[in-house]
Amino acid sequence: MKEYTFTIPRITPSLNKMLRTHWAELRKLKHTWGGEVQAATFDHDIPPAKTLEFRRMKIVSYRTSLLDPDNLYGGVKILVDRLVEQGFLYDDRQSCLDLEVSQVKVKKRSEQRTEITIVWREEC
User: Fold this and answer.
1) N-terminal to C-terminal alpha carbon distance within the chain
2) Which of 15, 77, 100, 110 has its CA at 20 to 30 Å from residue 70's CA atom?
3) Phi (first) and psi of residue 5, to 5 degrees
4) Strands 113-123 and 53-63
5) How far is CA 121 from the centre of its chain?
């Protein structure tokens, strides 16, 4: 079993925020998250996912204001999609990905971040 952990120095948006965002702003946000994933994984030598390779992923959001669970899970879609797009996950369907999302309250905005751990071992 292999495991890689990396940190992105920003928090994922809430689902409510993404639903209310203009399509052009959402496109910019997706581009920004793509760059964040590239920067965070640059020094980690994470191998690309093989066809039908099952991966487990844990996302921990450190944020000053906690979200309700559906807002938290819906907000990580932008991050998960970028990880699929860049080849770190084969697919985001449930048969290929076991996703766990949690959040931790921090006191300062400077402490906000998103930590991602990817573990893989078998085919989906």
Assistant:
1) 15
2) 110
3) -125, 135
4) antiparallel
5) 19
| 3 state DSSP class of 59 | strand
Which tokens in the block code for residue 112? 């906000």
Q: Is the pLDDT of residue 100 over 70?
A: yes
Strand segments, DSSP code E, in the chain are 2-8, 53-63, 97-105, 113-123
Cα–Cα distance for residue pair 73/88, rounded to 1 Å = 19
Residue 82 has which token pair? 């970028």
In CATH, the architecture of 2-123 is: 2-Layer Sandwich (3.30)
The residue written with tokens 């998250």 in the block is 33
DSSP 111: G
Give the per-residue pLDDT at 44. 84
User: CA 99 to CA 93: how far, in whole Å?
Assistant: 10
Compute the residue count for the chain: 124
Q: Is residue 122 predicted with pLDDT exceeding 60? A: no
Helix, strand, coil percentages in the chain from 3-state DSSP, rounded to 5: 35, 30, 35
